[in-house]
């Protein structure tokens, strides 16, 4: 029931560590991911230097977050269109250079809130080109039998960057402000992260599957978007995997909101909600490591179904515990379940998608996930206020079980049709 090809020869992470180009890509994306998280912390930190009406702090935070997330909804698929037509290294390195230079330019512009919104919007827009190019680059550098281990490594470091980035973002920016100056120290550190990422990926030699002709280089965004959509409709296995990934990200988006109130429930400060996300990240790293080393032995297990049931169990039990240590262990358990969904499904999409469709499919995936994330972020808070934390968590648990069983049955039907 794990619908990806078993590894013919898979030495886990050992083979990947000998692949110089893959390691450069991995290190580069890790640094870039850290840059993204620290940049978000930078935006929040810079707000104190920008004038605002009394009592409008929360509104400014919300507006800033909207400016940072809207590009993902608007341009998620557009990035994939460019990935299929231009060299992937050019897109990734160029994205890092543009974001780095723009971050360095922030101190030289007027300290007006609208200016900060423009920087957040533009830098986030450029990020939408990096993500699909990164996903499309992995199959170019890794053999098919090693894709599971590669995605496990990428997933674990992505969560590691999320945990570490938010954890060290404020201390790093404070230290930069003290050592390098209040006017440009923070921006210098974040800009340096992006530029360092670009430098790490510059030596990579990608074996592109085709050259770009003048006719291919012409961009037809709407036509390409429809072509990608038609392809997904014909390939229900990929579409089903994408729906499971989208559901997983929706759960994490809702938990991001809920953990703020959970922190208060367990006697923590609201800004310490990151402890729960960090514990989930550790669980994802642990689960990804298991899949990276022993994934081929678990090939016939219904891993995504097991993952959804683990997440549902955690959400249900969460409402009945008042012990902080046990709650953190539960978050780690939830992270393991998430890795059982995310790693196999991302590997499936990469294995089953032909190279000429990589950009369109990964761009559409990025777009769908970002659109789906907006709903939990918007409704979880009001639902919690209206119904209470326990009701919302139990409701999420039920939904996750239903989606997991539905996805499992749907995948079985698709595989039977293929056979």
Write a short abstract of this structure.
Keywords: Cell membrane, Membrane, Transmembrane, Transmembrane helix, Transport. With 419 residues, the protein is mainly alpha-helical.
Domain count: the total is 2
Helix/strand-derived category reads mainly alpha
**What is the helical fraction, as a range of percent?**
over 70%
How much of the sequence is in beta strands? under 5%
Q: Give the distance, in angstroms, between the N- and C-terminal Cα atoms.
A: 13 Å
CATH class of the largest domain: Mainly Alpha
Query: Unreliable runs, pLDDT <50, ≥5 residues?
Result: 1-10, 211-217
Total beta strands: 0
Write down the overall geometry: globular
CATH topology heading of the largest domain: Growth Hormone, Chain: A
Q: Which sheet architecture does the biggest sheet show?
A: none
Q: What is the fourth-level CATH superfamily of the largest domain?
A: MFS general substrate transporter like domains
Keywords: Cell membrane, Membrane, Transmembrane, Transmembrane helix, Transport
Pfam families: MFS_1
Membrane topology: Multi-pass membrane protein
Subcellular location: Cell membrane
Structural features, described:
This protein has 419 residues and is an all-alpha fold. It has two domains: 10-148 and 155-205, MFS general substrate transporter like domains (Growth Hormone, Chain: A, Up-down Bundle), CATH 1.20.1250; 227-419, MFS general substrate transporter like domains (Growth Hormone, Chain: A), CATH 1.20.1250. Helices cover 79% and strands 0% of the residues.
